[in-house]
Amino acid sequence: MSASSQDSLPAAPAQTTSQSHAPSLFSGWRVPNPLATLDPIFKRDEADILFIAGNVALVAFEIIDWPIAALLLASHAMARRRSKVLQAVAEVAEEAG
After folding, report:
1. Which of 2, 67, 80, 85 suits 45 as a labelling partner, its CA being 20 to 30 A distant?
2. How many Cβ atoms from other residues are within 10 Å of residue 44's Cβ?
3. Distance of CA 66 to the CA centre of its chain
4. Cα Rg for the chain, rounded, in angstroms?
5. Where exactly are the structural domains of the chain?
6. DSSP 34
7. DSSP 63
8. Burial category of 81 from C-beta neighbours within 10 Å (exposed 0-12, middle 13-18, buried 19 and up)
9. Is the whole model's pTM more than 0.70, yes or no?
């Protein structure tokens, strides 16, 4: 059969069955998105990204040691989290008052 005669053949109709299948053992499971763990990194504002990049650059040029940079980044993250919590508390207090 030549290639041109294959193109002119009608497509076979899709076969459907009325039988319902039993649910699979894994039908209710969802596969977690591995990129979801990176969302907090991607959703940072420019100041945070510059701070992180600055610390990485300081470590790369051996101006500071990596434990110092890790301590700076951890304290920065805790301060930002506390700041966001305080902003949320202030908004709730403003709406209540």
Report:
1. 67
2. 13
3. 26
4. 28
5. 33-97
6. G
7. S
8. exposed
9. no
